[in-house]
């Protein structure tokens, strides 16, 4: 069951347990994981939105997530 898409292209879904690279907490619902297009860092949709809204860069690869 795929949920609402956040951002642009989301890349491949990863169904293993992952941690959010922004808040470092476990992502409990993998179907809602948002990935960095460049390094594959995983984020909660809300964390990804926060990064974008604050014009921050990806914590892993430092690419700007702000469009
Ligand atoms: Zn998070
Ligand atoms: Zn990245």
Please provide a written account of the structure.
This protein is largely without helices or strands. It has a single domain, classed as Herpes Virus-1. The chain contains one helix and four strands, in the order E-E-E-E-H. Strands 1-2 form a two-stranded antiparallel sheet. The termini are far apart. The relative contact order is 0.23. The site of one zinc ion has 8 residues, from loops.
What are the defining features of this structure?
67 residues, Herpes Virus-1, binds zinc ion, two-stranded antiparallel sheet
Largest sheet: 2 strands, antiparallel
The proportion of strand residues reads 5-15%
Give the end-to-end Cα distance, rounded to a whole number of Å.
28 Å
Strand order of the largest sheet: 1-2
Radius of gyration: 11 Å
Residue stretches low in confidence (pLDDT < 50, at least 5 long) are none
CATH fold type:
Herpes Virus-1
- Ligands bound, unique: zinc ion
Shape: globular
Which percent range fits the helix content? 10-25%
**How many structural domains?**
1
> Which architecture name does CATH use?
2-Layer Sandwich
Mean pLDDT: 83
| Number of contiguous helices | 1
Order of helices and strands: EEEEH
Tell me, what is the CATH class? Answer: Alpha Beta
Number of strands: 4
Helix and strand content put the structural class at: little secondary structure
